[in-house]
Design brief:
This protein has 117 residues and is α+β, with helices and mostly antiparallel strands. It contains 3 helices and 4 strands; from the N terminus they run αβββαβα. The protein has a 4-stranded mixed sheet with strand order 3-2-1-4.
């Protein structure tokens, strides 16, 4: 029987076959741990991380509320930093996680703040 992490890895590989971040549309990759959430903007052509924000970043750290509220703040912060760097369109990579809860909250907040995906 496969573990949860093995199932997520299979799902992640299946998603990543189809997604590719370019210079015009970099990839917004989300990682969710038990207590924190991380988001980064990646250009797969140059294999570079352009931006990274997490619930541990100084922009978001110390925020109160539930983990879902903090995920919304991370989504809002990553969108603002993207717009500052003139990145308006991204490809959303849920990284094998189910599009629900904190992952969905981060995505919705990033869309509301001005990112298009």
């Amino acid at each position: 029987m496969r573990t949860k992490s093995e199932i997520r890895q299979w799902r992640k590989m299946r998603i990543r076959k189809k997604l590719h971040g370019t210079t015009e549309r970099p990839r917004l990759s989300v990682f969710r741990s038990a207590s924190h959430i991380y988001a980064q903007i990646v250009n797969d052509e140059e294999q570079k991380t352009l931006l990274a924000i997490s619930s541990l970043s100084s922009d978001v750290k110390g925020a109160s509320g539930s983990k879902t509220d903090i995920a919304r703040q991370v989504g809002n912060a990553i969108a603002k930093k993207c717009l500052e760097k003139n990145i308006k369109q991204v490809v959303f990579d849920r990284n094998g996680f189910v599009y629900h809860g904190r992952v969905k909250a981060l995505a919705d907040a990033a869309r509301e703040a001005g990112l298009e995906f």
